[in-house]
Every structure is written in structure tokens, then in C-alpha cells.
Write a structure and sequence with these properties.
The chain is an alpha/beta fold and about 325 residues long. It contains ten helices and twelve strands. Helix 5 packs across helix 6 and helix 7 packs antiparallel against helix 8. The two termini are about 30 Å apart.
Length: about 325
Amino acid sequence: MRTIYFNEQQAVCNGQCVATIGMFDGVHRGHRFVIDCLRQEAERSGLPSCVITFDRHPKETVPSTLHRSPHLLTTLNEKLALLSQTGIDLCVVLPFTKEMSQLSARDFMQQVLKEQLGVRVLLTGYDNHFGHRHPEHPEGFEDYHRYGQELDIEVKGQPAAPSTLHLPPSSSLIRRLLLEGRIDEANEVLGYPYSMTGMVVSGEHIGTHIGFPTANLQPDNPHKLIPANGAYAVRVQIGDEKEQLLGMTNIGQRPTFDGKTTTLETHILHYDGALYGQSMTVSFIHRLRDEQRFDTPEALAAQLRRDAATAEEKLINK
């Protein structure tokens, strides 16, 4: 996959391409269904396939009084890495600036899709929307189809993706599942384990004192969604190492010790290395339990021993 970071002065495709456009946060099963359809259409047309996405969530640039910008399932780098696995020819990253947000759908199609990106065929969902939306005259697929006829862009409707968990796969569904701690179901809709990457920073060393040293993860991106508080069985990747280690992560305020801030603390099973200052990726596989307050550190340590045994069993069998 060739990745292009778009600016308004460049023409991306000297020829033409078949494209689809969207945020693609999470690159989940629904997105991959759309991309499979895109690749099939591109093969039929004999043109390159192109996914057009954005460098940030549109609501970061155009905040709504009703809806704040949602937490991200994937950072831009994570999204591009996932898109590179789909077999598309080209990914164009648009900077979602205030100027771009003010373009009407027709102006966006003419100035960006046609003149800069060389889009010949545009696949879009029947309920998908792009361009500045006038509250009294919202535009939709029929408008895009008409603009396409005027601009020599063939606009084709995109069939709905098959349901997962008896629901249409969507980024908003995955966010809800993660915030409810339903990690197994979230991973099912994603098609892969949800993960967080960050630097290991110094903590209060509470885990070390009770026999369970932990790596305190500081996420790379503050907009990345943190799953619900609780204990999880996880797989851990340190830096660029390919080996995935087994572990358990606690998300929460450490109520046994009257904690005040949310932390992500990971204990790696059967591991005795130094991790401070290193990059670490934690992939959430299974939720072990809710966050709990214990009467004594000894009671917490006993529960952690049970958690470690359960986590190892779940991870080995998955």
C-alpha cells in the first residue's frame, strides 16, 4: 500500500482510481467488508483502489454542542498499519482542517476527489455523509450521485456489511462494548484484539511490594479509548520484539490503596526484565473481573494469584 499525506497543492493520481472515503476508526469487520467491495470494483474497472481517510476525527476540528469528539479506537499510525493489510493500492490521508470542513459536498467532490485525487468511481454507503452539512438541507446519496454525474464521477452505493453479534458492525458499537468491559464482544466486531501502546513510566511500586511488579503504561495518544475499569488477561509486546508475552492488566484507581487517578498497570507472567522507558503494546484478550477494593494488601495478593492462573489458562487456550 502506498500512503500519501495530502496537501491542497498536489495531484495524487495522474490517471484515475476507484475510491471510498471515511474515518475508518478501528478498521473493523464492517470497514474490511467495504474495502473488499472496493478492491473488487477496482479489479473490474482495471483501476487502482484507494481508501481516503482523515488525519483526525472531524469532531476534533468541528466540535458539536451535542456530541463531543469520540475517543479513538486506533491512532493514525495504527489505522494505516491495519489498512496496509487489506490489499488496497493507495491510502490518502486528508488533513481535516477548518477550511476543508467548510467545503460543500459538491465542492469537496470537485476540488478534492476529482481534481486532486483523480477519483473515477466512488463507493459510498447509502447512509454515509461527507462535506459541510446544512442543518435545514442535509445531503445524501441521491445528491452525491447527481453531483457525480455532473463531475464525471460514477457514484455507486455500497451494500451494508453483514451483522456481527446480530448488529451492524460499527465503531460506535465497539466503543460502547469497550466502555462496558465487554472485551470479547468488542474483539469479535473488530476482528482482532483491541490494544493500547505507550511508554512504561515509573509508578508507586505497590505491585512489587506484594509480589506482583507491574509496568505502568502511559498511552501514546490521549484520545485513545481506555476500556472499562477491571482486570484483563492480555498479551504484551515490548518494543519491536515479535514475541508476545502473557500478562494481566488492571485498569482503575487502585481502591485498595485509595488511589485517585486511573492507571493501566500490567504484570507480565514469568518475566523478570526491566521495562522503564520502553515502548509496550498491551492487547486485551479477556476480562477477568471488575475492579475491587480489598481489606488488606494480602487479600489483594491472594486474588492476584488467582487472576494470574485464570489469565494464563485463558491466554494459552486462545
